[in-house]
């Protein structure tokens, strides 16, 4: 089965055929850097990171571009509130963005251009639109003449006469039409600004993605992605200005991920209905958040709930258990020779091969990572069976079978990106998260237990009890057994 992608433009799944054989150009709208990211942002990043991983798995040479909007009304407002420079604010939250994305195992795209580094390209692009009659200047602003572009609304299926001005389309008496959108904004006193043929100002939001995608991917390019909230007006406006400027198709495939919902409403900072990534990762491992965000098809909405994260954490730990089993197993990195397998091992091999084929079919079907993850668990279960059950331990086939399981387990994890660290590091981080904040570290706990063991060996029961009570005050419960002393967080 060939890769098929649901194209928002056509509203159907289409066979994927890159413009240049063997190469794929992918542009994904990035974040506006004025605050910490919430898990709605995380979903888009996890979705397109997984899509990028699978495209590369298929053998394509991927050019993945994701921008930073580092000048915007929200950035200016936040910087003024903090009495801070806009550029410094943007850099601060770019750094915070990377902390969150790195924690979630989001790989860096090929290029991450910033809007402020491409203002000259934007003014050239705007002048091109003016010269072609699609844009006009008005008192230092420049607007795009929406009705002059035949086909406006083809992505969103909106009709011009039925449209209501959206969040980023403000009715202005200087506009020739209420639906015209801004390409260049005249500077207000105290705002950051750049020189232009129309006076000092700054670019509008929509123009930056058209300019940067054209510069780094050309036109047309293969895939443009983002959240469903960007279909209108942002992506609709990108299409209009890009196709008006160059007279040809802008993008071949449009992809949009569904919302993260909280209490059945879209998660958004504007409503206060959101959870930051940072807050979630203080309580749950990043692997659990990533797995949760992949647990529904990317085009579907997903409802945030604490119970879902608890279940996702449990699922991730089963995968880590399988990885640890495979890491400790004695397997061979040699070509599989089925003639050396026992009948029982051959039966398991058939299950492995089917799981791999089903995993690939799921990802080929519009990147259905939710379904593919089920087949990842089939490989994880097979790994535990092959490594532990006596019926599969007949030599020499066992080593080859485990090798086959290990390579396919790693392949699936490389695509889904769920297991971000090694099992030991994951378990250590889990312990650290569970410890009472500011009260005690795991190293201190181990040190006190060692002192208590010395006291018990010397029959100094008072000292041993005092250490036990000290740990209990810090919410650490210890348990003695013939195998030694273990501890848990209350």
Q: What do these coordinates show?
A:
The chain has helices at residues 39-57, 73-81, 86-103, 119-131, 205-217, 231-246, 277-281, 286-293, 306-328, 343-364, 369-388, 397-416, 423-434, 442-457, 461-473, and strands spanning 4-7, 12-15, 23-28, 61-66, 135-138, 141-144, 181-186, 201-203, 221-227, 251-257, 260-262, 265-266, 302-303, 476-481, 484-489. It contains 15 helices and 15 strands. The chain has three domains: 4-279, 3-Layer(aba) Sandwich (Rossmann fold), CATH 3.40.50.620; 309-423, Isoleucyl-tRNA Synthetase, Domain 1 (Orthogonal Bundle), CATH 1.10.730; 435-489, no CATH class. The radius of gyration is 28 Å and the shape is flat. The two termini are 51 Å apart. The model is unreliable at 165-169 (pLDDT under 50). It has 490 residues and is of the alpha/beta class. The strands form five sheets. It has a four-stranded parallel β-sheet with strand order 4-3-9-10, with helices on both faces. A four-stranded antiparallel β-sheet has the order 5-6-7-8.
Counted beta strands: 15
- Strand proportion, as a percent range, falls in 5-15%
CATH class of the largest domain: Alpha Beta
* Number of continuous helical runs: 15
Q: Sketch the major β-sheet.
A: 4 strands, parallel
> What is the CATH architecture annotation of the largest domain?
3-Layer(aba) Sandwich
Q: Uncertain spans, ≥5 residues at pLDDT below 50?
A: 165-169
The portion of residues assigned to helices is: 40-55%
Identify the CATH homologous superfamily of the largest domain.
HUPs
Mean pLDDT: 92
Question: What value does the Rg take, in angstroms?
Answer: 28 Å
Cα shape: flat
Major β-sheet strand ordering: 4-3-9-10
- Topology as a string of helices (H) and strands (E): EEEHEHHHEEEEHEHEEEHHEHHHHHHHEE
CATH topology of the largest domain: Rossmann fold
Q: Could you say how many structural domains there are in total?
A: 3
- Given helix and strand content, the structural type is alpha/beta
Report how far the terminal alpha carbons are from each other.
Answer: 51 Å
């Amino acid at each position: 089965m060939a890769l098929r992608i649901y194209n928002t433009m056509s509203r159907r799944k289409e066979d994927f055929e890159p413009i240049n054989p063997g190469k794929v150009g992918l542009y994904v709208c990035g974040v506006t850097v004025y605050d910490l990211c919430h898990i709605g942002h995380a979903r888009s990043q996890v979705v397109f990171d997984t899509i990028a991983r699978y495209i590369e798995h298929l053998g394509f040479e991927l050019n993945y571009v994701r921008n930073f909007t580092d000048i915007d009304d929200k950035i200016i407002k936040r910087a003024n509130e903090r009495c801070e420079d806009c550029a410094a604010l943007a850099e601060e939250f770019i750094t915070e963005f990377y902390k969150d994305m790195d924690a979630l195992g989001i790989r860096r795209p090929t290029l991450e251009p910033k809007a402020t580094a491409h203002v000259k390209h934007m003014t050239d692009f705007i002048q091109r639109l003016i010269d072609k009659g699609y844009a006009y200047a008005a008192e230092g602003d420049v607007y795009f003449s929406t009705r002059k572009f035949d086909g406006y609304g083809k992505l969103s299926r909106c009709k011009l006469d039925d449209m209501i001005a959206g969040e980023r389309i403000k009715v202005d008496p200087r506009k020739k039409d209420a639906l015209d959108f801004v390409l260049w904004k005249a500077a207000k006193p105290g705002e950051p600004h750049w020189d232009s043929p129309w006076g000092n100002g700054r670019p509008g939001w929509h123009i930056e993605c058209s300019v940067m995608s054209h510069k780094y991917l050309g036109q047309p390019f293969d895939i443009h992605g983002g959240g469903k909230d960007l279909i209108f007006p942002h992506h609709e406006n990108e299409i209009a200005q890009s196709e008006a400027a160059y007279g040809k198709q802008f993008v071949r495939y449009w992809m949009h991920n569904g919302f993260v919902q909280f209490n059945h409403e879209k998660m958004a900072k504007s409503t206060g209905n959101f959870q930051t990534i940072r807050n979630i990762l203080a309580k749950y491992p990043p692997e659990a958040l990533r797995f949760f965000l992949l647990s529904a098809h990317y085009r579907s909405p997903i409802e945030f709930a604490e119970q879902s994260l608890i279940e996702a954490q449990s699922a991730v730990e089963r995968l880590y258990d399988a990885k640890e089993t495979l890491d400790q197993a004695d397997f061979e990195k040699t070509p599989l020779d089925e003639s050396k397998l026992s009948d029982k091992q051959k039966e398991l091999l058939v299950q492995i091969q089917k799981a791999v084929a089903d995993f690939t079919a799921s990802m080929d079907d519009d990147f259905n990572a939710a379904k593919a993850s089920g087949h990842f668990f089939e490989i994880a279960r097979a790994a535990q069976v092959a490594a532990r059950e006596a019926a599969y331990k007949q030599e020499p086939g066992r080593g080859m079978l485990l090798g086959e399981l290990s390579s396919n387990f790693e392949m699936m994890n490389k695509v889904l990106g769920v297991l971000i660290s090694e099992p030991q590091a994951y378990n250590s981080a889990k312990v650290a998260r569970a410890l009472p904040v500011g009260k005690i570290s795991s190293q201190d706990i181990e040190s006190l237990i060692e002192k208590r063991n010395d006291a018990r060996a010397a029959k100094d029961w008072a000292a041993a009890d005092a250490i036990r009570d000290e740990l209990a005050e810090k919410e650490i419960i210890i348990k003695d057994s013939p195998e030694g002393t273990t501890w848990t967080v209350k």
